[in-house]
Amino acid sequence: MEQVSANRSHGGVQGVYTHQSAATGTPMTFSVFVPPHAEGAKLPVLWYLSGLTCTHANVTEKGEFRAACAKAGVIFIAPDTSPRGDDVPDDEGYDFGKGAGFYVDASEAPWAANFRMRSYIEQELPALIAEQFQMADMTRQGITGHSMGGHGALTIALRNPGRFRSVSAFAPIVSPINCPWGEKALGGYLGADRAQWRQYDACALIEDGARLPDLLVDQGDADNFLHEQLKTGLLVMACRKAGIPATIRMQPGYDHSYYFISSFMADHVAWHAQRLTV
Fold first, then answer.
1. One of 21, 31, 50, 147 is an active-site residue; which one?
2. What is the CATH number of the domain that holds 63?
């Protein structure tokens, strides 16, 4: 792991790091904010997964999480959304290929060689964090994300019961099986067998028996992707049917942007902190 940059912020350190990933076969970049803490202290970890077209930098620069994380004593980790590099296959659309890894392990050529973001986020990067950041308490993890990253946060938590004490999302894609973004991504990365898609669909995972201890979701009602792509109502129904305690808030007048995310980021950090610091 190499440090790209480090900046003092809110008494802590905002760092950006790069390493060679075995999962993707490419260099990967991620950011970590470590809040101020006593020497030898162990701090809980909050993962943030970003959306389509994003890198680690979008939330790092626009997310407005550092003050809340410093107050709560929570480490904030923001990975990239896909492999990068001249030899990595890509697509002309913004919603497939680079910047659109969808947090899956691809099985179709030519994507399968590099697009292994599920393995990267679930296995490789947590192991690296545990090794390189001694203050990180990996027994106390939370996860959140935006849009495609909200989809990632929900499905990773549902597939890994007990790993995350807290799960939230901003404007998540709740059912990729039932929206154009998801059909393109899952069909392209995984092939035509829709049964294979269910492991990457939060509503399908809940329907198939996966559970979360509770859930917080914020969704803007002025989000232009709400009805065609995000379909928040499907998650409301899935949680209600499964008996999952879910606070799913429709926020009037908010869109899909980081103006929306940053408005509620402190709420989410505090909500996670309540569950991670006990």
1. 147
2. 3.40.50.1820
